[in-house]
Design brief:
The complex is a heterodimer of chains A (192) and B (154). With 192 residues, chain A is α+β, with helices and mostly antiparallel strands. In chain A, 19% of the residues lie in helices and 37% in strands. In chain A, the strands form 4 sheets. In chain A, strands 4-8-9-7-6-5-14 form a 7-stranded mixed β-sheet, sandwiched between helices. Chain A has a 3-stranded antiparallel β-sheet with strand order 3-2-10, with no helix packed on it. In chain A, strands 1-11 form a two-stranded antiparallel ribbon.
Chain lengths: 192, 154
């Protein structure tokens, strides 16, 4: 029996909706770009390679409307486009050392370092206050220790329309290996 | 029959903002949170300066300069957590404050004066505190304006 005067309190539906989250644990790969940590679902990653190994087969391309994409990996099934991580997120220029090739996708992402595997126990939706392109960049945010870490959306790097634009508009730059050797930040050149 | 103007007492939270004081209807103010580490990640929403974690919930911190156009506002020490709602979107936001907030429960809000120059379209009403006339701001409208223009609404 409930004591007299006791007030039962429950969370308002709007509060619950605002705090939408997934609590099933999921393995993720933590990586860094320009000092900022990100996470990506492990099942979204096909392969992680060094920029060294990719540079041997990469072709430099130039599409004026997509400065964040400067290389592709030619393939019979359509080129895989390599997106500069710092260019995509608008971070300061960095020297990437790894390429994350996404599963079931024609996209790879240049990152500075792979920081390891983590188990994501909670995924919180991006607060509604954010209203820029970050809404397509991220699946949400998670917390590692005391740090808030954005969980990237694999489809947020290049949309199907952008890939079609790259297919239609990319022109390979002649003598790309010479250019590769001479490029600085954002290139596939090995990080020093 | 006598028609009375609505004078239902409501509670308001007053806070200093630069050279003036502003107020919010207390119903929308969730709490005053203690100082904590402001965290950030890449985004393109210019009026959000970072996020804080409140009870396992991510709360965006709104840049007071962008919101209130107060470049000379004093150093912020606390976060006032406020709820807003625009259409189907609703969220919490944290507004950095100096900590000198005041809960006023006896005041009644009077309608704002006619808006001749558009400067008071975010003012829900006026709170009379002695000789002071304090603007009660409509955060929903302010955020709606920010989203539309990206410019400080005040």
């Amino acid at each position: 029996m409930r004591p007299t005067g006791c007030i039962a309190m429950k969370i308002a539906p709007s509060e619950r909706r605002g705090a939408r989250r997934a609590s099933r644990s999921e393995p993720v790969i933590a990586f860094s770009i320009s000092g900022q940590m990100f996470a990506i679902g492990a099942n979204a990653v096909q392969e992680i390679r060094t920029t060294d190994s990719v540079a041997a087969v990469a072709v430099e391309i130039s599409v004026a409307s997509k400065p964040k994409v400067r290389h592709c990996l030619p393939s019979g099934r359509g080129a895989t486009y390599i997106v500069s991580g710092w260019g995509h997120f608008g971070l300061s220029a960095s020297r990437p050392a790894q390429v994350i090739l996404l599963r079931n996708s024609r996209v790879g992402v240049l990152v500075d370092s792979i920081d390891g595997m983590e188990t994501m126990r909670i995924l919180m939706s991006l607060p509604a206050g954010f209203c820029g392109p970050e809404r397509s960049w991220y699946r949400g945010v998670t917390i590692f220790g005391e740090n808030v870490v954005p969980v990237v959306s694999p489809s947020g790097f290049l949309s199907p329309r952008e890939i079609a634009e790259l297919d239609a508009g990319s022109t390979s730059v002649p003598d790309s290996k010479a250019l590769l050797g001479g490029m600085a930040e954002g290139s596939l050149e090995k990080a020093e | 029959m006598t028609v009375c103007a609505e004078t239902t007492p409501r509670s308001f939270v007053l806070l200093p903002m630069g050279t003036r004081r502003i107020a919010f209807v207390a119903d929308f103010v969730v709490k005053l949170a203690s100082p904590q580490r402001l965290q950030n990640f890449p985004h393109k929403t210019p009026w959000i300066s970072g996020v804080i974690v409140q009870h396992n919930r991510i709360v965006p911190v709104y840049d007071a300069n962008a919101l209130f156009n107060e470049p000379d506002a004093p150093e912020r020490r606390f976060y006032m957590i406020v709820q807003w709602k625009i259409g189907e979107s609703r969220d919490l936001c944290a507004i950095p404050v100096a900590g000198e907030c005041e809960l006023v429960s006896t005041g009644s809000m009077t309608p704002a004066k006619p808006d001749l120059d558009g400067q008071r379209r975010f003012v829900a009403g006026l709170l009379l505190m002695g000789r002071d006339e304090i603007e009660v701001l409509d955060l929903n409208e302010m955020i709606r304006a920010l989203r539309a223009t990206g410019e400080p609404p005040l």
